[in-house]
Amino acid sequence: MKEIRYTITDPLGLHARPAGLLVKEAASHACAVTIAANGGAAVDAKRILGVMKLAAKQGMELTLTFDGADEGAAAASMEAFLKANL
Q: Tell me: the pLDDT tens digits for 4-35?
């Protein structure tokens, strides 16, 4: 199991457009991907409603957990995505 943490720098936070892209990126990996904001309840990062429910704002810390076959590649890919989009 791998885990990464990322603090949101985008002034708009995790709004609809990047949330949709995040879900698409997470869905491209075979492993399970969960996401939590500021240590709250974790949701499936492959489900848009769960990701939007986080209501993650600028300055909040996201914790992504990866568990499965391609967790290393998924962690690297998602970390690059977060840095480029949030």
A: 999 999 999 999 999 999 999 999 999 999 99
Give the active site residue among 2, 10, 15, 79: 15
* Structure tokens given for 61: 């810390």
CATH classification of 2-85 is 3.30.1340.10, yes or no? yes
Residue 66 near residue 10, CB atoms below 8 Å: no
What stretch of H or E contains 67? strand 61-67
Task: Identify the pLDDT of residue 57.
Answer: 94
15 is a catalytic site residue:
yes
User: Residue 48 belongs to what H/E stretch?
Assistant: helix 48-53
The structural domains of the chain, with segments of one domain joined by +, span: 2-85
